[in-house]
């Protein structure tokens, strides 16, 4: 019996990379269901995902990729290892940064700045020009850097935070400068993750995420992997290697491909990968944030695959 598709966004308790005021919280709030779920901030991406694994949360929202600084390694690695999880949705948020302090502070007073490493990378130029003598120290998130300044009786490790403008309101801080990102177009991509289940039906504008573990390193090993996708007309939107953690030089490939697991060309490519890889982790098929339809090359439509399958069956039958 065919199982009904899992709801794309389960109701209930959703963990997110917090505390309140992160870009991740903003990403969660862009989803229509946000108003009806209990959104629970977690200190790290690992904690947010582990809550889902443990069944304490129904879903988690975590950052996965920034247009300036690239992937969020902790998210890629957490999804590649441990109890499997599944990506259900992706969404993007434009990231604009402010320099926040306790009320009454001036730019000249800022000696130490706290922020998330990804935010530091995106504001490096501004900090070098406006705070050349300042030291930047890393906080668990941009909002955690702001939250540390919120209690006037505490002695935080920094005297200013680089955070989302939203964090100023949340923590009663003042913005000494706004729009301090080096790239005004910066965008971060976030994913909504649940425990594995049946993927939602294809929309024609889908993406599939995979982690591919090579059998052994040999000349052309990556080429063989890419060939499985290329010959079926599957376009990749992202590929990067990550260490497996087992040994030096032991890498896996984190891949996003156009299309849905229900698409014939993607299904065939997956079977090919299963045959040649040591392991293939399917991280989900979900609707693309940009609504772009998959590129379909001649000879790779579902219908053409079906016709070829029927033709082979006829040959085998001697028809
Ligand atoms: O610290 C936050 O506010 C986050 O949501 C994390 C994060 C990231 O991991 O890239 C998200 C967007 C910005 O690029 C900076 C930090």
UniProtKB/TrEMBL annotation:
Residues 210-285 form the ACT domain. Keywords: Amino-acid biosynthesis, Aromatic amino acid biosynthesis, Lyase, Phenylalanine biosynthesis. It is an enzyme of class 4 (lyase). Residues 13-195 form the Prephenate dehydratase domain. It comes from the Bacteria. One of its GO terms (molecular function) is prephenate dehydratase activity. PROSITE patterns: ACT (PS51671), PREPHENATE_DEHYDR_1 (PS00857), PREPHENATE_DEHYDR_2 (PS00858), PREPHENATE_DEHYDR_3 (PS51171). Its EC number is 4.2.1.51. Pathway: Amino-acid biosynthesis; L-phenylalanine biosynthesis; phenylpyruvate from prephenate: step 1/1. SUPFAM superfamilies: ACT-like (SSF55021), Periplasmic binding protein-like II (SSF53850). The keyword Lyase applies. It catalyses: prephenate + H(+) = 3-phenylpyruvate + CO2 + H2O. The keyword Phosphoprotein does not apply. InterPro entries: ACT-like_dom_sf, ACT_dom, Chor_mutase/pphenate_deHydtase, Preph_deHydtase, Preph_deHydtase_CS. NCBIfam families: PRK11898.1. This is Prephenate dehydratase.
